[in-house]
Structure formats: structure tokens, C-alpha cells
Amino acid sequence: MGFTLEEAVKNYAIPYESDDDLGSIVEAIGEAKVVLLGEASHGTSEFYKVRAKLSKLLIEQKGFSAIAVEGDWPSSQQVNQYIKGYADETADARDVLQAFSRWPTWMWANEEIAEFIDWLKMHNTTSNEKVGFYGVDIYSLWESMEEIIRYLTESNPAGANLKLAKKAFSCFEPFNGMPEHYAISTAHFSQVCIDEVSELLMSIRSHKDHYEDKMEADLNMKVNALVAKNAEEYYRAMLQDNAQSWNIRDEHMVEAINEVRKHNGEDTKIIIWEHNTHIGDARATTMKDEGMLNVGQLLREQYGEQNVFAVGLGTNRGTVIAASEWDTPFMKIDVPPAREHSWEHLLHKTGAFDKLFIFNEENRKYFNGWTGHRAIGVIYDPEYEAFGNYVPSQVGSRYDAFIFIDQTTALNPIVVKKSINTI
Question: DSSP alpha helices (H): ranges in 265-342?
Fold first, then answer.
């Protein structure tokens, strides 16, 4: 018996009425070692709360011990140090979140994350296996270089790597910490800084025995060097090829995830928090037609689909934190009802209640009709909803499960005292 997409939604929807209903997703995850938790926006409170709840269940019931997020490595290390008891015990979660000073600050400096960090710290004080929190994004080129130089200066001031690091950093100094300046310069000077950061990464990897494992200093060195190398390549590609720069970024995030797993042990189970556009398999979207890949696709290919479980999240309407233009103050914006014939409109039309789906061998094929799937970025103008914000997708293959919150509310940002411009 076959179903239309609408019939499949009606037949397989599971009402999501309480946190207990998330147990069916935890059960479906089974023995997967990599769980990806998505979101349709970076500014929706319910998405963060649901991911936190699922993460707690996976930590407590399935032994997951690492969380990787779509955030900068140096800022996330402040959280990691805090929850593992490596940092100043007088600080609290909101103090630690001040480290996320790069726009858009609200993505991680928010009350929902502060509550989750408090839980992680409490968990780590009573657990034999401490859970880590790691940022795997690519944007922190200058901060990562500064971290490398600081560590090398304090631990091995006479070492060859310190000279390499200073040489690499001096290459970027003329651009004043502004990646867009470097990106523009590379339109004419394509070899700028390439050799320096590549040599530094190779040297750090080949001399890994020189670095202590104390408080994950060795991992911190390796990933910061990886950021420096890949960010240089990313900014060089940014003004020339959108698909190439996207791929460099997602490939970097997978490299960083693999470094975290390697450091913590090959059996480490890791949870990944990123936007749906990163964690849902790109091969089940029109992204593939533009030559784009993503984290979800790469991890499925590397680890095998049986070891990777992707959960998408979406909404019909509500409010969201976003900005009208890049590097401008955030605001609360109304999210209009989902566009007609979209995935989210279909979920609302078949019953205006919260629901979840688990896609498996039995039903996945019924959810593979092409449909528009909403994606809201950090820059958002609801007036463009009729023309953009929807990625044509085969939802059943893009994810292994999907959680739908019919009406959502905006995230609760923490005001960050310092802001760093980026692009």
C-alpha cells in the first residue's frame, strides 16, 4: 500500500505532548555513535530546549560524552573548561557565555544554553566520564592563532612551532582581524598566508608529543591550528565561489568533530548541534545540484548510515531572534505561517499540534516526495518568505527523525559586553 506525502504525515505522526515522548527517538537512535540535532533557525527557544532535553537523555541513557556545536572553538573551550572544572570556580554560566562575543552572539549566549551548561556542570561533578563541549565552526581564525601563540609562549618559548606561529600570525596582521579584508585581498594575491598556516598545522601534528594532555591542551592546539589553515582557505574562497566556501566550512566541521572523537577515544559517542542545513543530508536536497555537501552527508559517508542519526526540527509560525542585516543588533521578529505546500505547512494543515516522526525502512519512501522545507538564518526578513527560505527536500532521506513545534517563541539572549565584527 502506498501513501501520498499528506497521507503519510497523517498515518505516521506521533503526538509530541511531553518530554516522555522523546523516548521513541532515543530508542530509534539505538547504538548510533553520532547524533545530529538540527534546528530551522538559530533563534528559537523551543529548538534549544528540545535539543538540550534529547542531549540529557542521550548522556544519561546512552553514554554520550561529547557535544559539538556550530560555534567558535576558542569561545566554546571556555564552556568546556568551566563544565569540566578546569576554570575559575567563582564564575557562573552567564559569565562564561560572555566568551561568545562574535556576532551573532545570541546563538550561544542565551538563557537556554546557560541552563543547559549548568546541568552539564552538575552532571560532570557526579559522573566518572565528564561530558565535553566543543565548537567546531571555522570563523575564529584570529582568536585561534592568538590561542596558539599564547600556549606556545607559556609552555615552550624556545620551540620551533612558536616561530612558525608568529610568522603565520604576522601574515594576517595587516588585515586587522577583519576576515573580509583578507578575503578581498586574496582576489589578487591567492597565495597569501597559505604556506605559513599549512606548515604550522603539519608541524603541530608531527610534534604532538611536545604538548601536554593536561586540560586537553593538546587537542586545543591541534584544532586551533586546523581552524587557522581551513579558515584561510575559506576566506580565500568566500568571494569567488559560494558552493566551494560552503563545502570548505562543512568539511572543516567534520574534521574538527573527528579530532574530538579521536582525542576522546574512537568509541566516543558525540552529539552535534547545528542548523538543519548542515545536519540534514545534502544529497536529499537541491543543494547537491549546486555542488554543495554538508556535515550530515559527510558523516553518513564516513561512519555508515547505521552509526549516524539525524534529527531535524521545524515550526509553522511564532517569533524568532534574528537581525535585519549582517552585524546589526538582534531583534524579535514574527515568523509568518509556513508557505503553502511546504513541509511545515503540511504538518500544520494535517493537525495544528506538536508532533514527531521517525523515518525507517518501512516508511521512509513515503516521505521522499520533494517539498519546500523552511530554513531561517541569522539574517531574516519575513517579507521574503514567499520567495525564499525554503530548501526543496526529500525529508524522509534528509533526516532519520523530525520534530515539529507548531508555534514557537524567540530565544532569550544574554547581553554580551563586547562584540567582534566578522563575516
Answer: 276-279, 295-303
